[in-house]
């Protein structure tokens, strides 16, 4: 299967690394929109040309699948263009700022006889799989309270638009909250209520979201753009008989730190044989090749986006939003 990639940033680089490893299932046909030096070297080492534009790549590379690895507000255009060309499409979740366009996108993909798949790489991370396994085995009893903290520097491409109170649908809530909702629904089940706060200022986007589950469990999620340190993720699940904790800064696996091309920041990676991005992309390629359902169901991504939209409504009204099966009541 011939695969092309459009995108940049850390997500684009992560999937570029994965494409360079999965040569048994995918031939890397083209790369565009990327400025990261490592991604370009990976493509060239795999014999993949680097194109200046999406149109040039599609005409000359003729891929079977297009991996769209861009910020949510930029993905829709390339997803729809690729479907119109009769290509399978994979994009990292959330695939857009809102989910309204996804239904017609799925219909267009079905009409063209292609697959539209959204990814959630953390679903394949060993620490989340371990948490899910422990919860299923009753290792901490009945789950009661979950605390999640995500923090990172303010995204360079965000500019000042996130300081505008009217732009809440293109900030930390739209980009990060669907990921946490997806993972928490997978581990703890349906969400009945969402309540959100979102203090914002130039260079700062801070969300506080409380979720109540049908089981009675409660999750408190704090997400922050504006930290001076690199990305960090922390989660604590407290149950009736124990606690599970994970902190990305205290991972037990070996970390490899590399200075980036410009020399102005440090990237951290793990030398594991297969990363979550490898596992995610391998599952996508397998599903397309064998016409199987993906591990990450796109319907669950859409539901997570709808619940994140309910959080935005909570911000606007100052009131909790009640849900039934992910839909607002």
TrEMBL record:
Keyword Oxidoreductase: yes
Keywords noted in UniProt: Oxidoreductase
Enzyme class: oxidoreductase
GO MF annotation list: inositol 2-dehydrogenase (NAD+) activity
Origin superkingdom: Bacteria
EC number annotated for this UniProt entry: 1.1.1.18
InterPro entries membership: Gfo/Idh/MocA-like_OxRdtase_N (IPR000683), Gfo/Idh/MocA_Oxidoreductases (IPR051450), GFO_IDH_MocA-like_dom (IPR055170), NAD(P)-bd_dom_sf (IPR036291)
Pfam family, one: GFO_IDH_MocA
Keyword Oxidoreductase part of the UniProt annotation: yes
Domain Gfo/Idh/MocA-like oxidoreductase N-terminal: 2-119
Gene3D superfamilies xrefs: Dihydrodipicolinate Reductase, domain 2, NAD(P)-binding Rossmann-like Domain
Protein name: Inositol 2-dehydrogenase
Source organism: Paenibacillus konkukensis
Organismal lineage: Bacteria, Bacillati, Bacillota, Bacilli, Bacillales
């Amino acid at each position: 299967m011939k695969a092309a990639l459009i995108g940049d940033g850390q997500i684009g680089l992560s999937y570029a690394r994965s494409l360079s490893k999965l040569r048994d299932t995918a031939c890397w046909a083209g790369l565009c929109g990327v400025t990261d030096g490592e991604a370009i070297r990976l493509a060239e080492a795999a014999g993949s040309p680097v194109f200046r534009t999406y149109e040039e790549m599609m005409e000359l590379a003729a891929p079977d699948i297009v991996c769209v690895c861009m910020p949510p507000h930029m993905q829709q255009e390339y997803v729809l263009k690729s479907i119109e060309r009769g290509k399978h499409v994979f994009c990292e979740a959330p695939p857009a700022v809102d989910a309204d366009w996804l239904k017609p996108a799925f219909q267009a993909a079905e009409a063209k006889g292609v697959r539209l798949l959204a990814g959630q790489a953390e679903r394949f991370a060993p620490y989340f799989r371990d948490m899910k396994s422990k919860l299923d085995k009753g290792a901490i009893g009945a789950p009661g309270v979950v605390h999640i903290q995500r923090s990172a520097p303010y995204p360079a491409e965000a500019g000042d638009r996130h300081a505008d109170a009217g732009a809440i649908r293109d900030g930390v809530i739209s980009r990060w909250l669907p990921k946490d909702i997806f993972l928490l629904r997978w581990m703890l089940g349906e969400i009945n209520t969402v309540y959100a706060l979102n203090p914002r200022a130039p260079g700062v986007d801070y969300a506080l979201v409380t979720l109540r589950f049908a089981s009675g469990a409660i999750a408190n999620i704090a997400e922050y753009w504006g930290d001076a340190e690199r990305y960090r993720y922390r989660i604590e699940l407290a149950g009736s008989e124990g606690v599970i904790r994970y902190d990305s800064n205290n991972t037990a696996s070996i970390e490899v730190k590399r200075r980036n091309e410009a020399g102005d920041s440090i990237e951290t990676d793990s030398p594991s044989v297969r990363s979550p991005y490898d596992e995610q992309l391998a599952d996508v390629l397998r599903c397309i090749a064998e016409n199987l359902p993906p591990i990450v169901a796109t319907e669950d991504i859409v539901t997570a986006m709808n619940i994140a939209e309910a959080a935005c409504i909570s911000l606007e009204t100052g009131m909790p939003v009640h849900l039934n099966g992910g839909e607002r009541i």
